[in-house]
Amino acid sequence: MKIIEIEISSALSPSGLPDIDYALNPYLGCYHGCLYCYARLYTRDRYISDNWGEVVAVKKNLLNVLQREVNSIKRGVVGIGTITDPYQPVEAIYKLSRGSIEILATKKFPISIQTKSSLILRDIDLLTKYRDLIDVGITITSIDNSMAFLEPRASPPWARINAIRKLSEAGIKVWIFFGPIVPGINDDINTIREILTIAKETNSILYYDSLHIKPFMMRNKYLIDIVKEVKRYRWNDLFSIIKSLCKEYNVLCRPGFGEKEGDRYSISLDIYKKQH
Ligand code: SF4
């Protein structure tokens, strides 16, 4: 992986996501390199977008800029990691997500974080301290490693599950994003039941969503057959099953809809109204 350090002039940008006022992305690009990720489509830097998963830019002066901004803008909900994973491996070195949480929470900005990385547990002290302001979404796409070929460098399922359990035990508001659902890979009843069990145990809302087809997927040899399957798949049948299982488990579930940014592309964001 290539790491580039860059300087920025603004840290927070208006969010295109409902119920999130500002987006904060400490990094451009994402080493996790999920094959289906279309955060690349929202990443303006062409070099990073074209080399998704291989190049990550670190916003070196982010914390200084953010510190200045929080003193001059209206308080609002900040989504950390709308087009990148804020806890991808570079965070272990640069600690920009941690630093951002500290600055924002000190100024009482509500914060919503989404990740596929167990590195978030490093910051459990901070997240616990400011738990009244923070919610954390963990993307869980499978229980076994069936999705690993699509998410080559994200934390394995067991580590994500462990992370959500630990965060929940610490009293932090958590939610699960079960997406993308890929026909024949993670759409089986067993996977859905297992994820609902975790949601129940951790008192999480479950957001679920299908894989959304994008043109770049047609050029990927691992995705091309999946794309064909997605197009003929009976999504309504699957969603009916999910809804009925959610009732059985007494878990609040929400379908994803619309398409916005990165992992958050399809979350119906009433979660923020409920949780902040
Ligand atoms: S889907 Fe999320 S974790 Fe995966 S590459 Fe995109 S931003 Fe990173």
Give a written overview of the molecule:
Helix 2 runs parallel beside helix 4 and helix 7 runs parallel beside helix 9 (235-249). Mean pLDDT is 92; it is low at 258-262 and 265-276. The protein has a single domain, classed as TIM Barrel (Alpha-Beta Barrel), CATH 3.20.20. An eight-stranded mixed sheet has the order 2-3-6-7-8-9-10-11. By secondary structure, the chain is an alpha/beta fold. 48% of the residues are buried. It is built from ten helices and eleven strands. The chain is globular. The chain has helices spanning 46-50, 62-70, 90-94, 96-106, 124-129, 157-169, 189-202, 224-232, 235-249, 270-275; strands at 2-6, 13-14, 22-24, 27-28, 55-59, 78-80, 111-115, 134-139, 173-181, 205-210, 253-255. The chain is 34% helix and 18% strand. The structure holds iron/sulfur cluster (SF4). Residues 30, 32-34, 37, 39, 84-85, 116, 154, 262-263 line the site of iron/sulfur cluster. InterPro entries: Elp3/MiaA/NifB-like_rSAM, MJ0683-like, rSAM, rSAM_sf. Residues 15-248 form the Radical SAM core domain. Pfam families: Radical_SAM. One of its GO terms (molecular function) is iron-sulfur cluster binding. This is Radical SAM domain protein.
